[in-house]
Amino acid sequence: MTARAEAEPMLTGKHVYRVHWVLGTDRLRGVCHCAAAREFDDPVELWTWLLAHPEGPPAHQPTNGNGSTR
Amino acid sequence: MIPRNQWYVAGYGREVGRELFSRTICGESILFWRTRAGEVTAMSDRCVHRRFPLSEAPTRLVDDQVVCGYHGFTYGADGRCTAVPGQTRVPRTARLTSYPVAERDSFVWVWIGDPERADTTRIPTAPWLDSPGYTTVSGMEPLRARFGLLVDNLLDLSHETYLHGGYIGTPEVASTPITTEVDEEAGVIYVSRHMDDAECPPFYARSTGLSGRITRWQDIEYTPPCLYTLHSRIAPVGVLPNADGSDPDAFHVEVVYAITPETEHSTHDFWAVARDFALDDQAVSDFLAEQNRTVVLQDVAALDVLETVLAAEPAGYQELSINIDTGGLAARRLLKRLAERDTPVAAV
To answer: Rg of chain B over CA atoms, in angstroms?
Structure first.
């Protein structure tokens, strides 16, 4: 995966969830405040995963860019 | 569902004076007036006696007391009844519900919920509206739609391209990716869309004088449930802020909305446009006021129709969300959490 051109963080809290629209694609990359990250096609599925993290279902590994959306 | 135990904008300070003024906020009819000392006060707009609306003539304000125009029940600025007709004893329970209020940034904020929990330090700020470095135009349009539809609308500005073409919409708005950030603890959602090379829409071309293509940044900051600010930065293509954060060669517009539920199915759509350029140019003020009101009315027309349609749909109707909805979905979740946290025990 090439380096992502992502926007600078604007919120400075300790528990900020971030979602980047991956440039040049239709995919969304969710980043938990625990640094776990995963890509999705669907924002509803993305928020379900992200907002349950890191206390939710078993932690997912940072994505390899081809994360399953199930 | 409307979140309670929250601050909501009830109006502009200029709307509240020595005339009795009423507005329904979150389903509660509230009477506002200003004491002789200049303090805004808020209380129920229904006389405890026979429920006569105190905002209706011939009810009147006498010094710092409201005298009901039906039977003369008289109330002080704290809502307590001080006199009733024909007898000297005032019933102990003769008291209007009073509401915590605060004036900030030209707005009058009212607390809807348990008064004991009202904390003015939790009121979000929009300092541009009241700052000497900015010139502001503002207004309010009634919306016959649930407030969540306006939140959806404002969190996804890609609709500008289609609903507001010729005003603020250009092709680049819908086609530029966004970044969304959510801090649930702080209660804030931030959505950024930075367009590096975009057409300049009439709203900005005529107000700034820029004629070529522009760098256009849209940074949304939403503090649910009520206050929304779009930090808008306009500059010629390639002009960026300095390393120290100063940004003298750009035009900055703060587009502020206060999204206040009137009822479960209607909303007060407060809007304000504050700019840091052409501060004394009345023609620019008139233009931005007319343009933004037009844009707001385009949203109102669309959302009024949408409310009618949704109100007739069976519960659990199907929607489809795509990337542009990322911020709106986050807002829905935060609003749902706020509403569920303070849901009163259901009345039987």
So the answer is: 22
Whether B347 maps to a domain, the answer reads: no
Residues B117 and B35 placed together within one structural domain of the fold: yes
Q: What per-residue confidence (pLDDT) applies to B342?
A: 75
The per-residue pLDDT for A54 is 80
Is this prediction's pTM over 0.90?
Answer: yes
Q: Do B143 and B188 belong together in one domain?
A: yes
Spatial CA neighbour of B301 closest among B157, B143, B154: B143
Return the domain boundaries, chain A. 18-52
Q: What is the pLDDT of residues B194-252, one digit of tens each?
A: 999 999 999 999 999 998 999 999 999 999 999 999 999 999 999 999 999 999 999 99
What residues make up the domain containing B82? Answer: 6-121
**B126 occurs within a structural domain:** no
The helix (run of H) or strand (run of E) holding residue B266 is: strand B266-275
Chain A contacts of B325, Cβ < 8 Å? 43
Work out the end-to-end distance of chain B between its first and last CA atoms, rounded to an integer number of angstroms: 18
- For residue B287, give the nearest of B228, B204, B201, B164 by alpha carbon: B204
What residues of A are in the B interface, CB distance below 8 Å?
6-7, 9-11, 13-23, 26, 28, 42-44, 46-47, 51
Whether residue B82 is found in the same domain as residue B192: no
ipTM of the complex: 0.84
Those residues with Cβ within 8 angstroms of residue B215's Cβ, 6 or more apart along the chain or in another chain: B194, B195, B196, B197, B198, B233, B234, B235, B236, B237, B238, B239, B240, B250
Contacts of B219 in chain A (CB under 8 A): 10
B210 and B312: one domain? yes
B16 shares its domain with B140:
no
Mean pLDDT across chain B, nearest whole number?
95
Q: Which of B121, B140, B156 is the last residue before a domain boundary?
A: B121
Question: Which domain CATH number covers B18?
Answer: 2.102.10.10
Q: What percent of chain B has pLDDT over 70?
A: 98
CB contact under 8 A, A6 and B179: yes
Instruction: Tell if the CB–CB gap between A7 and B179 is shorter than 8 Å.
Output: yes
Task: Tell me the residue length of chain B.
Answer: 348
Mutate to test the interface with A, among B158, B173, B181, B183 (most CBs of A within 10 A): B181
Contact yes or no for B288/B204 (Cβ under 8 A): no
